[in-house]
Amino acid sequence: MSKQYESSKPQNEPSDAECKACNDTGFLIEKAEQEQYNGEIIIKDLGRPCHCMKQKSLKNRFKNALIPEEFKDARFDNYKTESDVQQTLLHATQEYLKEFPSIIKDKPEHNSLGFLAVFGESRIRSLSGEAKYKAKQDHNNFGLGKTHLQMAAAKWILNRIRVRDEIAPGQYSKFDRGARVLCVSDITFMDDLTNARMAGDGGETLSKLLESAIAADVLVWDDLGKAKWSESKEGLYYQIINERYLHKRPILFSSNEDAGTLSDKIGYAASSRLLGMCGDRLYRVEGDDYRLRKERF
Ligand SMILES: Nc1ncnc2c1ncn2[C@@H]1O[C@H](COP(=O)(O)OP(=O)(O)O)[C@@H](O)[C@H]1O
Ligand SMILES: [Mg+2]
Ligand SMILES: [Zn+2]
To answer: What's the whole-model pTM score?
Structure first.
């Protein structure tokens, strides 16, 4: 494992500790001598940004990323690689992150990472009796650690990746800023969008929610296609994915569907763009559920 993925510290959220240097104001006040036009020297209070501002921004970006509580401790160094599928998933994530600085900077067409099932959940559900039982046994896609790794990746990105905004075509800001990440879970997120649509506020809540998913530098979409299909959801999937596709903004997603059934759940237009954004970084995975393995030993 390469060194940078080994250390556990940078993958964790920064602590809440208050800054003694500036009492959490973000500014350091210093006494400075200032010469007046008449030659008189006076002592003035001058403020300058405290070194803790970077830490505060990191803390904020962690908060806004909405990493689920149960994955707060999900890191690369506590991801076990005993099976082939675990190795595939870890390797895929790390290879992706190696390229990530240039993905953010150069905005290539292939900029996303996807974990799919070999035999989708809704394909299994459509079977019955013995065939369904057998497909479930042979094609498990749960508990492989897909979400674990994508949350570890989200933290890695929050801690390490800095972005320069394009202020005019081809012209970039002099200052960089930390990457903004948003993690959403399909059922909750689609519910939130659906409720926002009915909020009766002229679409304000809905467009805020949509904008957060469209504008984030990195969108982590967990359990994509798990929500029950509806025509209006299909429109929402398309809107978000198409906008990110056009702006070449990466999506890290995991799904219990396969390439075919995913398209049934989120619509062909959205899924073909999304799969296209992954290029070679699309992994069809199945294997034993980590939680069940643990119980056996
Ligand atoms: N290889 C692994 N090493 C350590 N913990 C794991 C591993 N795989 C899964 N887990 C843990 O098992 C639980 C289920 O994993 P999860 O990432 O939700 O799987 P998936 O998203 O593939 O269904 C999580 O708590 C996760 O942290
Ligand atoms: Mg998951
Ligand atoms: Zn400070």
So the answer is: 0.89
